[in-house]
């Protein structure tokens, strides 16, 4: 699958998937979402990964160590 074939979630396409009864196929909960009431607000753009938080959790350090060990095995 190429990156160009990935559709990012938006409030519009999530509501459309629910409307055409495809919520389960897209792992969507059909509960009311407060943010859908705002036409110009996309919750999927508002929630971006927090790089500083990832550093605090040592995820970046782990990924670097894992990649280093993996590449040494090759």
SS field, number of helical segments: 4
Low-pLDDT runs of 5+ residues are: none
Sheet having the most strands: none
Work out the count of structural domains: 1
Order of helices and strands: HHHH
Shape: elongated
* Approximate strand percentage: under 5%
| Quaternary structure state of the chains depicted | single chain
Q: What percent of the residues sit in helical stretches (DSSP H or I)?
A: 40-55%
Q: What is the terminal separation in angstroms?
A: 25 Å
Which structural class do you get from the secondary structure elements? Answer: mainly alpha
Provide mean pLDDT, rounded. 81
Based on DSSP secondary structure assignment, what is the total number of beta strands?
0
Write down the Rg: 18 Å
Organism: Funneliformis geosporum
Protein name: 11559_t:CDS:1
Question: What tags apply to this protein structure?
Answer:
74 residues; mainly alpha; 4 helices; 46% helix; 0% strand; 11559_t:CDS:1
Walk me through the structure.
The chain is mainly alpha-helical and 74 residues long. The protein contains 4 helices and no strands. It has one domain (3-73). The protein has helices at 11-19, 43-46, 51-56, 59-73. The protein is elongated, with a radius of gyration of 18 Å. The protein starts with 10 loop residues before the first helix and ends with a helix. This is 11559_t:CDS:1. It comes from Funneliformis geosporum.
């Amino acid at each position: 699958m190429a990156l160009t074939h990935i559709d990012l979630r938006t409030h519009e396409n999530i509501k459309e998937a629910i409307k055409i009864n495809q919520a389960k196929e897209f792992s969507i909960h059909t509960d009311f979402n407060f943010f859908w009431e705002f036409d110009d607000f996309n919750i999927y753009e508002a929630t971006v990964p927090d790089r500083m938080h990832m550093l605090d959790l040592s995820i970046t350090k782990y990924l670097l160590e894992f990649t280093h060990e993996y590449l040494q095995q090759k």
